[in-house]
């Protein structure tokens, strides 16, 4: 997935949070699969601000396959929720990405913001102002 330029109102993110974003984040958001959990723990993959999982390192083929499948499921969930809320898929995905980075990424895990640079979490993540 490519980085998303976030030139949309902060109101979308705020509305997403107010309207129950946590209920709209699929249960597979962090990936319950052992392959994904291991790759997260080992710093191979991490969450991105665009709402998708990405590769902090070159992944082995089974990890790439698992991440690709996860991102396809996420895109389907984002598409359905965005249609309900009258926003674009990208806007909804970023709103979920902001929430995920703020609340689900644990210390020691990797994440990427709009610049695409991978960082290891050590305390609160300084989210961009577009996250509200």
TrEMBL record:
Pfam families: DUF1318. Keywords: Signal. Residues 1-29 form the signal peptide. This is DUF1318 domain-containing protein. It comes from Zymomonas mobilis subsp. mobilis (strain ATCC 31821 / ZM4 / CP4).
């Amino acid at each position: 997935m490519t980085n998303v330029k976030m030139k949309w109102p902060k109101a979308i993110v705020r509305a997403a949070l107010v309207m129950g974003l946590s209920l709209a984040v699929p249960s597979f958001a962090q990936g319950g699969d052992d392959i994904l959990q291991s790759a997260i723990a080992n710093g191979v993959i991490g969450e991105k601000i665009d709402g998708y999982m990405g590769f902090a390192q070159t992944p082995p083929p089974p990890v790439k396959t698992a991440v690709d499948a996860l991102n396809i499921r996420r895109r389907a969930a984002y598409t359905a929720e965005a249609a309900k809320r009258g926003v674009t898929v990208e806007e909804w995905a970023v709103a979920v990405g902001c929430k995920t980075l703020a609340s689900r990424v644990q210390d020691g895990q990797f994440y990427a913001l709009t610049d695409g640079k991978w960082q290891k979490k050590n305390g609160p993540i300084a989210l961009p102002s577009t996250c509200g």
